[in-house]
Every structure is written in C-alpha cells, then in structure tokens.
Amino acid sequence: DGGITQSPKYLFRKEGQNVTLSCEQNLNHDAMYWYRQDPGQGLRLIYYSQIVNDFQKGDIAEGYSVSREKKESFPLTVTSAQKNPTAFYLCASSPRTGVNPYEQYFGPGTRLTVT
Amino acid sequence: GQNIDQPTEMTATEGAIVQINCTYQTSGFNGLFWYQQHAGEAPTFLSYNVLDGLEEKGRFSSFLSRSKGYSYLLLKELQMKDSASYLCALRNSGYSTLTFGKGTMLLVSP
Fold it and tell me: Which of A80, B75, B109, B110 would you label with B26, given CA atoms 20 to 30 Å apart?
C-alpha cells in the first residue's frame, strides 16, 4: 500500500526543546511539503522541497528547519525559536508528473503540544 | 500575493444540495483545488479546475470562473458523512505550491 506516514500522531514537549516530526512517503513523489494548521484556520506552508537535497521556505518558515537527504523522507524540526509551536502539522507530497501532477497527497498529521 | 475567501460555516439537511463558494484575488494562478477534511484528519482531494466551467464527479461538482475570481463546490444528495471542512486552494503560478483558504465547515443534520 502506497502512502504517506507521519509519526507520532500526538507529541508533547516542554518549551525550549527542539522536536523533529517524521514524514515518509513510498509514492515515489518528487515534491514534499510541510504545513501547519491552527484551529479554524486553513493550511499554511512552512517548507517545501521539489527534489532531493533542495528545499525552499514557505510563508511561515521562521523557527523551523528541514532536510531532504532521501526522496522518501522530509523531516521537520520545530526549534525553540518558534514562538507558538502548538499546532497540527501536516506533511504532503505530489508527483510533479502524470495526469494531475500537482495534486497533493497528505499524511495523517502530527498534533504537537508544547507546554 | 493571494487572498482567498470562503464562508466560515454552513449548515444543510441530509438529502439536500449545498453550494460552497470561494472567491479569490490573485496576480496569477494555474488552477484551483477543492479538498475535504474531517476533523483531526488529513485533507483528501475532491477536484481540480484549470479551465473555466463545471467539473462533475459523482455527487460532487466544482465550477471555476477566472474572469469573476470565483469558484464553487456543489454537493448533492447530502449524507451525514459529508459533515467536514471544505478547503479551497490556488495552485501558485510557476510553482508546485498551493495557497489554501481558511475552509468552510459544513454541518449536515438529519
């Protein structure tokens, strides 16, 4: 079964700690994305990557970092510099070729709570 | 930049038809997506419009008018499981990124 996995589903951290959220896909998609969603809000783009070893900042990149060392993996680190890290984080990927190359497929999300 | 407006909430009755509107202001875009998101879950793809007109897919249809900066999602024969948030998103020119609206929460009652 092809898909996107994110782990863990729920994550709790103390303020001041960095935390890394996992995102893995076996869809052979080139592009991957990280979004943040707050209650009653749409999705806001944090970082995206169109190919391995390359990534770009989205609209709200401050306080976050990413890496793209493998096509399948795009981990997101929430650093202590992120002022309001508590949110629902969604990872997505898209194929960039095919019938609908820009459709994004989403993982199940990680709900991060920082206290 | 992009600015996308959707109603915050809508209510409808099981078996009815509902239209969810999305208006936008943009300097350019390549297409418009509609996604469905149940509470606490991942968004799932519903439709993608590139050209003006209506795209029909079962109980769901989506319409785009580029000249009017307007799209809508039409849901027919509503079912309780259609209670969800519906997200309108623009595909940005030159990139593979999407800009999302805040979503419309639809509540379907018996």
Answer: B75
Residues in chain B within 8 Å Cβ distance of A41: 102-103
Does the distance separating the beta carbons of A48 and B43 come in below 8 Å?
no
Mutate to test the interface with B, among A103, A110, A111, A112 (most CBs of B within 10 A): A103
The residues that bridge with B65 in the sheet, in sequence order, are: B70
Segment B56-87, tens digit of pLDDT: 999 999 999 999 999 999 999 999 999 999 99
Q: Which residues does A20 contact at the CB level (< 8 Å), separation at least 6?
A: A75, A76, A77, A78
One-character DSSP codes across B66-96:
TTTTEEEEEE-S--GGG-EEEEEEEEETTSS
What backbone phi and psi angles, to 5 degrees, belong to A55? -155, 160
Q: In terms of Cα–Cα distance, which of A47, A18, A39, A15 is closest to A87?
A: A39
CB within 8 Å: B8 and A108: no
A60 contacts A43 by C-beta, under 8 angstroms: no
